[in-house]
# Entry
Amino acid sequence: MPETLKTQVLVVGGGTGGTCAAIQAARRGIKTTLVSEFPWLGGMLTSAGVAVPDGNELIALQTGLWGQYIQTLRQKQPGGLDRSWVSLFSYHPRIGAEIFAHWVNTLPNLHWISGQVPLEVHKTHNRITGVRFPDYDIYAQITLDGTELGDLLPLADIPYRWGWELKAEFNEPSAPETFNDLTQRYPVQSPTWVVLLQDYHHNAPEIPVPPKDTSDQFQGAWDNYGGESFLNYGRLTDNLYMLNWPIHGNDYAENLQRLVESETAKQEYYQEAQWHSQSFARYIQTHLGQRYGLAENAFPHPSNWAFALHPYFRESRRLQGQITVTEGMILPQSGGTVAPLPTDSQGQVTAIIVGNYANDHHYPGVDFKLQPKSMRWGGRWTGTPFAIPYFALISETVEGFLVCEKNISVSHIANGATRLQPIVMGIGQAAGMTAALCVECQCQPQDLSVRQVQEALITDAVAPMAVIPLLNLPPTHPEWQAWQRYYLDHPEDYPLDGNCGCSEGFSSEVAAGKCVAGILSPQGEEMYQLQTGSGSWQVVTTRPEVYRKLQGVSEPKSVKLWGYENAAGGWLVVEKWE
# Structure
């Protein structure tokens, strides 16, 4: 018989959003139970192996648990985070898992149970009251779905979406007019089973041919990059390379409907996806050199140490919530660089999570065109900022329940921007705070004041989180809370360029990394080159104060900069300008 437990908040799923939700609820002082399938917490950031997170890389967007995570990684990861060119942060996934485990284990009111999957959802009328697992029956005031595929939604008969919406439904500019071969073949974005390669610097153990070999699909994978640059896309520490490559790579999208058909069908897909990544790793070893082999002891497997514990899912079942995030809500306003703030029928701002990732969809062999949402900032391309509304986390029909992963109420098109790791961390933190407030106030998420959630997030004692995206307002600025509140009260004043009127007398710059002197020159549209005695670097920054100085460079000048060198990207990430 399963052991019966009672808790105040139950979080099902120990992925990126679920882990953050549990940590936030417990930090608020609420008795919280977190149930995970895998022995590592963190999902995409750790157990799925995507240890090169994208989005929210600007200092002004490094807030909340995401900001705390990056700061902790800087302290914990030997050799730093500047190794790959796909992201400004890369680290060993084991380091990330250790950080999350430490945060969880230091909270006495957070009970973590691993090795369990949900089997049944307990429901009284229209209220979720708990979940049954193989070894536990757990009852809670508020239950959160943090599973990778939104598993509680079908178990609880909660309405959800899976697949595409046509343009007629939400008037999204990138949505198709009619269902077609693409929408039928790829109902959701392609997952990837991440595998880590290791450079042995001599002959590595030969990678065996898997039972289903797909090596014929990888020809041309690095044609436009060269082998070394291709590998450096996901370069980690300790001579490791993350394989999560979209171009003739290891995205695997054969019969994706299997993911939600049955457990047997899902496991069949899992096996094929892992074989596909093994084929890719073998193809690289065969064509780029025997020195590259499967990594040793990368993940806590009894076998297959190089393979992530589960696929990197880009899309889930998606709640039909009180509000659906659509493409129009994430695209920049006309003449600006930021999306409009979401508001309710009374004009009150409902934003609780910020993001800036450029909309990105994965369908193997297909170049799917989306409405652009990118901009030049700090010497590089980044996504335009947007905010996710509170009501995208709440069911239209069910009480006692929140979502906290990629399973928020979002369209298939907009999911390409909301699915990224930092944003899902924010979704988890906001959901965890909401659940805690519901317990404190003895109310349902539907009845909670949105402003109460917003205030709790921006004033959190450990990891305050922005709810309004402001590009020139670093979280250490003394006016940070005041400007967050100002735009909550005055959404009509929200600036089109995302820059508030904060005092420029403050600087977030820090003398971090290496001191580098040289000649800085402008190189076209918002690009900058630093020539030193030993070579040249592209200069980029995430700090608004450094960015303002870069924008003032119209001719070559002598400078002294502090920052982190990244040989893979050929850039110097500048943290301070003397």
